[in-house]
Every structure is written in structure tokens, then in C-alpha cells.
Amino acid sequence: HAKENGRNTYRFYTADMNARALEILSVENQLRRALERDEFVLHYQPQVDMGSGRIVGVEALIRWRHPERGLVGPMQFIPIAEERGLIGAIGQWVLREACRQNQAWQAEGLPPIEVAVNLSAMQFYGRDLAQDITAILAETGLAPRWLALEVTESVIVQDVESTIATLAALKGMGLKLAIDDFGTGYSSLSYLKRFKVDKLKVDRSFVMDVPGDADDSAITRAIVNLARNLGLQVIAEGVETPEQWSFLKNEGCDEVQGYLISPPLPAEDLAKRLARGAWRLGSI
Ligand code: C2E
Ligand code: MG
Ligand code: MG
Ligand code: MG
């Protein structure tokens, strides 16, 4: 294979090939194998309604069960998968597995919840994402309303027209759309008018120093108010303390997600949590 030979030549004969590039090549090859050998797993982090304390959704977060390195977090390999053109295949696996699992929970008789899946910008190009998701929903039997997609502002600004068209198509199918890490991207708020998102996720970097830091508190309050005034749901991520909970509750935030309630859990543990019912502040 000429292309592969070329790459090998580069690999072995370029003097300034650094350790970082070698590491990327090695991870790339291992990622290809990981897909074939089914080494990926999803953990699920509860999203709790502040009023009822009930788990109303989960965010699916990928991990890699690496044969030597153990459980590897997404920050260690998702950027490489994006760079090396593997995110399409991995993203498809995540979507299918999240939908399959959520449908399985419903079939067990657990209270129905939304499952939120993170999407990379690249997943919007090359393939018809709406068509792929339609196929996955049909295959797994999950109703569209129980699938939410999380995109960051950076995903939207990559190619505004085509991304917004795809998001509108997905929305039309009955899926939920959330803007992840809201407020951290390079963005104009005008996209909030251009297509109907359902939910804003206040980034953990703002929530972290609430209520002690006046600036972060002001930003968090502004995002919660923006969402409410636009008729959107708002969820705070990275909630770790009862003080953050109280602040967010006071400001009228709808939902929270974070270590205060639970870290991301394997599917079986999440099912147990779901069966146990409502979470209350002070119940830990
Ligand atoms: P994200 O979508 O913003 O996910 C939230 C991250 O914050 C998760 O890290 C979660 O474990 C962590 N987190 C949740 N609550 C707390 C808390 O209270 N305190 C602290 N310190 N951290 C908290 P994780 O699982 O390492 O994922 C990191 C990022 O990797 C995600 O950020 C997301 O951007 C990306 N990612 C994860 N799974 C996927 C995937 O399937 N596809 C794509 N494209 N990206 C993914
Ligand atoms: Mg997310
Ligand atoms: Mg996030
Ligand atoms: Mg974040």
C-alpha cells in the first residue's frame, strides 16, 4: 500500500520526528484495534432535576479499557481520534451503544431518561449524521425524544450553514439539542436564534468558584437568566458542593450534574441509582 509505505518512510527516516508524533501514531494504531476488539465502554453521569431530585438524564462519557494502561479517559484519546480521522467510527459506536443501553433500561422497566451523547465537529462532515442517527434509532428501538446531542460552540462555528442545517434536521426528528461548555467557546449568541436548542450547559469553569467568586457568580447567573428568558432549559456541570447547589437553585437553574450527585458510573451502577429514586441534598 503506497500511502502506508509513505507514512512508514516518514516515520523511520525523518530526523525531526519527535516523541509526540510517535506517540500519536502508536495511539492511532491502538485505537483502530480498540474498535475491532471492542475495548471502549461508556460510563453514565446522572443529570438531576433540582426541583424533584430525580435523575432525568445521563451523559454518556467514553472510556477506553486499554489492555496495558487500564481505564483511559477521553481527553487522552479523543483529540487524537479527531486528528487522525477515527472520530467518525468511534462516534458511531458511542451513539449506537448509548441508544442501545438507554432502550435496555427502559425495557427493564426503569423510569425513562434522556441519554446525552457528545459530538465532535468532524461528525458533521463527510457523512449524513441525521441519516446515521435515524438508522441507529430504528435499529435500537429508542424513541428520538430520549436521545440528546451535546455540541460545543466551537462545533457550530466550524461551518455554520451546514452544521445548523444538520442540527435543524436532527431537531426535526424529535431529538434534544444541548450546547455544551456554554460560554467558553468563540461564538456569537445569534446562533441561539438560528436554530432551536433545548438546553444550555453552564461550563464547569464558571460553576467551580460559585458562590465565592463574584465574577463567576455573575456569569453563571447571566447564563441561567439567558436560558430562562429564551425558554431554554439550563443545566450546570461540575457541581461538587452543597453551596453550589444552593446558589444554582436560588438562581433558578433547572438541573445539575457533578460529583456532588455522582461521578460517571458503569451502566449497571447507574441502573441501581435509577431504581433507588430521587436524590436529595443532604442524602449523602
Ligand atoms: P464534557 O462533555 O464537558 O464532560 C464533562 C466532563 O467533566 C467529564 O469528563 C466528567 O467526568 C467531568 N465531570 C463531571 N462532573 C464533574 C465534577 O463535579 N468535577 C470535575 N472536576 N469533573 C467533573 P470526562 O469523562 O473525562 O470527559 C471529558 C470530555 O471528553 C468531555 O467533556 C467531552 O468533551 C469529551 N468526551 C467524552 N466522551 C465523549 C464522546 O463519546 N465523544 C466525544 N466526541 N467526546 C467525548
Ligand atoms: Mg458533554
Ligand atoms: Mg460539558
Ligand atoms: Mg466541560
Descriptors:
single chain, 284 residues, alpha/beta, eight-stranded mixed beta barrel, 19% strand, globular, disordered N terminus, binds ligand C2E, binds magnesium ion, EAL domain-containing protein
Order of strands across the main sheet: 1-2-4-5-6-7-8-9
Report the structural category.
Answer: alpha/beta
Tally of strands = 9
What is the radius of gyration computed over CA atoms, rounded to a whole number of angstroms? 20 Å
Protein name: EAL domain-containing protein
GO molecular function: cyclic-guanylate-specific phosphodiesterase activity
Keywords: Membrane, Transmembrane, Transmembrane helix
Question: Can you summarize this structure?
Answer:
This protein has 284 residues and is an alpha/beta fold. It is built from twelve helices and nine strands.
Structural notes for this entry:
- The protein is of the alpha/beta class and 284 residues long.
- 47% of the residues lie in helices and 19% in strands.
- The protein is built from 12 helices and 9 strands.
- The chain has helices at 2-13, 19-37, 78-83, 87-107, 129-140, 153-158, 160-172, 191-194, 204-207, 214-230, 242-251, 267-276, and strands at 40-49, 55-66, 70-72, 114-118, 147-152, 176-182, 199-202, 233-237, 255-257.
- An 8-stranded mixed beta barrel has the order 1-2-4-5-6-7-8-9, surrounded by 4 helices.
- The chain is globular.
- Mean pLDDT is 90; it is low at 1-11.
- Residues 59, 118, 150, 180 line the site of one magnesium ion (MG).
- This is EAL domain-containing protein.
